[in-house]
Write a structure and sequence with these properties.
The protein has 175 residues and is an alpha/beta fold. Helices cover 29% and strands 22% of the residues. Strands 1, 2, 3, 4, 5, 6 and 7 form a seven-stranded mixed sheet that branches. Helix 2 packs across helix 4. The radius of gyration is 16 Å and the shape is globular. The protein starts with a helix and ends in a 12-residue tail after the last strand.
Length: 175
């Protein structure tokens, strides 16, 4: 199993999902870890991230983004828009799938850091109880993206944008 080779903590029966793109112009798919949030944490995340959207899941890139600001924005946008994305199961891989290179534990830590950053920006202080309790790892979700100038834009909602240069393996996207 490719996922357990990447990170032995990944359950062998973890769902790997793709999303059918509304446009046939998706150039490639990017992987995201999807964490289910306990009911008691959903409102905390929504408040910290400053959105009206209901969070049932938190979504973190399963690939490296070199710029911490771009990473934070990607976690915010992906988590906020994830409820509107309809997973389609693992479909045929017609387009290039970007590698899932970030282990689950590391990505959970990035989510925690992004949450704490948003909480600190909102309240100007942190307390011991501010850490987010994550639920189980729900899936590895591949989302379709297309290149638009200097950015990568998800083709289903157009809500998630990532600076192309922030990706570690961005050169592979051109080949």
């Amino acid at each position: 199993n490719v996922l357990t080779a990447l990170d032995p903590s990944v359950p062998r029966d973890l769902q790997i999902l793709t999303v059918a793109s509304d446009e046939s112009t998706a150039d490639f798919s990017l992987p995201f870890w999807v964490f289910e949030l306990p009911e008691c944490e959903r409102a905390r995340l929504r408040m910290a991230f400053g959105t009206l959207e209901e969070f049932g899941s938190a979504v973190v890139p399963a690939f490296e983004i070199r710029n911490s600001e771009a990473l934070h924005r990607t976690i915010l946008r992906a988590s906020a828009s994830y409820q509107q994305i309809e997973p389609a199961g693992l479909e045929q891989r017609e387009n290039y799938h970007y590698p899932a290179t970030e282990p689950v534990g590391y990505s959970a830590g990035l989510l925690q850091a992004s949450y704490l950053r948003a909480q600190l920006e909102r309240t100007n202080h942190l307390t011991e109880g501010d850490c987010l309790s994550l639920g189980r790892l729900r899936a590895l979700q591949y989302l379709p993206f297309k290149a638009e100038s200097y950015f990568l834009v998800d083709t289903q909602l157009g809500a998630i944008t990532i600076e192309r240069a922030a990706l570690t393996h961005a050169a592979k996207l051109d080949s």
